[in-house]
Design brief:
Elements: E1 5-16, E2 19-31, E3 36-40, H1 47-54, E4 62-67, E5 70-71, H2 77-87, E6 88-91, H3 103-114, H4 118-131, H5 147-159, E7 165-169, H6 177-194, E8 197-202, H7 205-208, E9 213-218, E10 221-224
Parallel strand pairs: 3-8, 3-9, 6-7, 7-8
Antiparallel strand pairs: 1-2, 1-4, 4-5, 9-10
Length: 226
C-alpha cells in the first residue's frame, strides 16, 4: 500500500539580512496509512515549519512532498487547495474555532465546503463530537466551552472530512497536564478508529511515547528518537 506521506530532500531556509538560516536540511520521511508519528523537538527546532510544508500552507521549500501519491510541487494554487481539502486535516495549539458558530456548526462547515449534504454533515458532526464526549455540548459556542472542550471540537473538525492524514501542531500545548492527557488520548483513539494517519508535533517526550513511532528534529535534520 502506498504511503500517505512521502517527503524527500525537503529543505527550507530564511534570509535575515546577510545571514542564511537553514531550518530544514534535506528531510526524508514517510508515513504509512493509519500510522501515528510523533515529531519531537524543542521550540524553534522547525517542527511548525515542517508541518506548514507538509500541509501545503507555505511556499519557498525545496524537495518533494507526495500526499496520497500526488506530487504537491506539480500543483498550482487551486490544486494545492483541493489536496488540502480532500486529504488533510489540521489541529493547532490554539483551536481557532469560529466564535459565532456552535460546536456542531464548527464541524459541519468544512463538510459543507467539501460538498457533503447538510443532513449528512450534521449527523457526522454529532457522531464525532459524541465520540469525543461532547454529545451534550453540540449547541454551545466556543466561549461557553472549556479549553479542553474547545480543543476536542477542533479535533472533530479536523476529522470531519475523513482525511487521509491529520497534521497536529502542539495540539495540547495550551492545556494543563491532566487535560492534555485526556485530550491527546481521545485524539489518538479517534484517529485510529477513523483509520487516518497523523503527524503530531510536540516537545513533550512523555506524550510522544504514546504514538506508533517517534522522530526527532534537531538542527534541521530528522532522525528516529532514541
Amino acid at each position: 500500500m502506498n504511503d500517505v506521506l512521502a517527503v524527500t530532500g525537503l529543505s527550507r531556509s530564511f534570509q535575515q539580512g546577510e545571514v542564511t538560516i537553514e531550518v530544514l536540511r534535506g528531510i526524508d520521511m514517510t508515513i504509512a496509512p493509519g500510522e501515528i508519528v510523533a515529531l519531537l523537538g524543542p521550540s524553534g527546532s522547525g517542527k511548525s515549519t515542517l508541518l506548514q510544508a507538509v500541509g501545503l500552507l507555505e511556499g519557498g521549500f525545496e524537495g518533494s512532498i507526495r500526499i496520497d501519491g500526488e506530487e504537491a510541487a506539480k500543483l498550482d494554487a487551486k490544486g494545492r487547495t483541493r489536496l488540502r481539502r480532500d486529504a488533510l486535516g489540521f489541529v493547532y495549539q490554539f483551536h481557532h474555532l469560529l466564535p459565532d458558530f456552535n460546536a456542531s456548526e464548527n464541524v459541519v462547515l468544512p463538510q459543507l465546503i467539501y460538498g457533503t449534504p447538510r443532513a449528512a454533515a450534521e449527523e457526522r458532526a454529532a457522531s464525532l463530537l459524541s465520540a469525543l464526549g461532547l454529545g451534550h455540548r453540540l449547541t454551545h459556542r466556543p466561549s461557553q466551552l472549556s479549553g479542553g472542550e474547545q480543543q476536542r471540537v477542533a479535533v472533530g473538525r479536523a476529522l470531519a472530512n475523513k482525511p487521509r492524514l491529520v497534521l497536529a501542531d502542539e495540539p495540547t500545548g495550551n492545556l494543563d497536564e491532566a487535560t492534555a492527557d485526556r485530550v491527546l488520548g481521545e485524539f489518538l483513539r479517534l484517529v485510529r478508529e477513523e483509520g487516518s494517519a497523523a503527524l503530531v508535533a510536540t516537545h513533550n517526550e512523555r506524550l510522544a511515547k504514546q504514538m506508533d513511532r517517534v522522530l526527532r528534529l534537531h538542527e534541521g535534520h530528522l532522525a528516529p528518537a532514541v
